[in-house]
Amino acid sequence: MLQLALPDGSRPEIVVSRRARRTIGIRVLDGRIELAAHARVPLSMLQRVLDEKRDWIWRHWQRQQALLLARAAAPQAVCLQGRPLALLCEPARPAGAALTDDALRVGGTAGDVRAQVAHFLFCQAAEVFPRHLRRLAPLAARAPGQLLLSSARTRWGSCHRDGRIRLNWRLIQAPPTILDYVIAHELAHLRHMNHSPAFWQETGRLYPDWRTARAWLRRQGESLFDFG
Q: Bridge-partner residues for 86, per DSSP?
């Protein structure tokens, strides 16, 4: 059984996901540590990686705990396509969210605010994402299939071999360039169902500034999980 003691005495849950991949991935998400590794990688090696990455995990753990505390408080703002909006809770208004020039007004009880904001963002994603996909799809190696919205906690998107593409609806909060990068990433899988150098070359053909967008997601991605 894998274990890791952090400086504050915490012993977070460690989840191992077995996938066909060459490297070992580490994520700190929702108060737990997730490891992704090939089925042939022994637990002893995974434990060694945990021990070697302890300082890195601790830094991300601290940031994760701060985000969890912030989420427990009443939200004050939300972003829509990278644009910050004040979040105004108005209990006297009927339940629902209404967008104005610089604010999102949410009616109903305060305890339901996050759910209503998540529903609003989901609906916005359902409207906006297809437009972005239609714009980028002609550049792809082959036509994509059905577009679906995802609520995944560990993936921004996925591409099935039959061409179906899933995009995480939370990306509606990010700047449009970030959404375009994730779409390009999934469209690149229509030619290469892996993450080989050829895949990244194809991603670069579809979206040249992919490195900047990927770095943004690595720095800011956790903040997109404030709702839903």
A: 77, 103
